[in-house]
Design brief:
This protein is α+β, with helices and mostly antiparallel strands. The chain has one domain (about 10-174). The protein has three helices and eleven strands. It has helices spanning about 40-50, 55-65, 130-160; strands spanning about 10-20, 20-30, 30-35, 75, 80-85, 95-100, 105-110, 115-120, 125, 160-165, 170-174. The strands form three sheets. The protein has a six-stranded antiparallel β-sheet with strand order 3-2-1-6-5-4, sandwiched between helices. The longest helix is centred in the last third of the chain and has 29 residues, at about 130-160. The chain is globular, with a radius of gyration of 20 Å. InterPro entries: ComK.
Length: about 170
């Protein structure tokens, strides 16, 4: 069992498990699974720290950028485009965190839960309705889109500004 875990491009989901009355995480990656001696919320928060924020800070950013006020998707690392969403309120110990980039398909089972088909050719049963699951995927896409829009605005603002004179000479404005 690992003591801590660094979220990366291969991370599919972080699932809470209770073992001997202690909450740990089962981390699902594209090439395997790991048990970690920390609850998923702690792993998420710790990985947010590496990007200079916290889970709460990332949730506040999502609220400001998208207007989403509950079960907010978060960006853990913008440079690596690591986005995750919670399956229920992050305050609940049973909350899973899922990276939508690794969801191939999903369907409801006979109990109303969601079965997610993952990029590692496995499935994950998620205790939430298919409608809520798809809404979380859409919310995460919305967050990613809004952040890309803001990044494009920043990139445009940093470009040198040129204007043309009547003789079609290009002059750089300082």
């Amino acid at each position: 069992m690992k003591k801590e875990y660094l979220i990366n491009q291969n991370t599919i989901a972080i699932v809470p498990e209770k073992v001997n009355k202690v909450w740990i995480s089962r981390v699902i990656e594209t090439d395997g699974e790991y048990l970690v001696e920390q609850h998923p919320k702690y792993i998420i928060n710790q990985n947010c720290w590496y990007s200079g924020t916290s889970l709460q800070g990332s949730q506040e950013s999502t609220k400001v950028i998208t207007g989403i006020t509950h079960k907010q998707p978060i960006v853990i690392n913008l440079a690596e485009e690591l986005f995750f969403f919670p399956t229920m309120s992050p305050r609940k110990m049973e909350c899973m965190w899922i990276c939508p980039d690794h969801i191939i398909d999903s369907k409801a089972n006979e109990y109303g839960d969601t079965i997610a088909y993952l990029s590692n050719n496995k499935t994950l049963q998620i205790p939430m309705s298919l409608k809520s699951f798809k809404t979380q995927i859409l919310r995460t896409s919305h967050l990613r889109f809004k952040l890309r829009q803001k990044q494009q605005l920043i990139n445009v603002a940093e470009r040198p500004f040129f204007f043309y004179t009547s003789s079609a000479q290009r002059i750089k404005k300082k």
